[in-house]
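Hi all, posting the design record for the shared folder.

TITLE: backbone redesign
STEP: 1 of 1
STRUCTURE INPUT:
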């Protein structure tokens, strides 16, 4: 089963249900030692 990671408004379960109804939310989490950056 593929996993989907999201950020921003894609964390809203209602929006995800509307966008991808066959992909239910299973949980939330983070990856230690990693960070998301934009623009270098």
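Okay, here is what came back for every position:
SEQUENCE:
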């Amino acid at each position: 089963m593929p996993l989907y990671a999201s950020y921003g408004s894609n964390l809203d379960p209602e929006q995800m249900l509307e966008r991808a109804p066959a992909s239910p939310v299973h949980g939330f989490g983070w990856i230690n030692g990693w960070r998301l950056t934009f623009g270098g």
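COMMENT: Residues 13-19 form the longest helix (7 residues).
Let me know if anyone wants the other runs.
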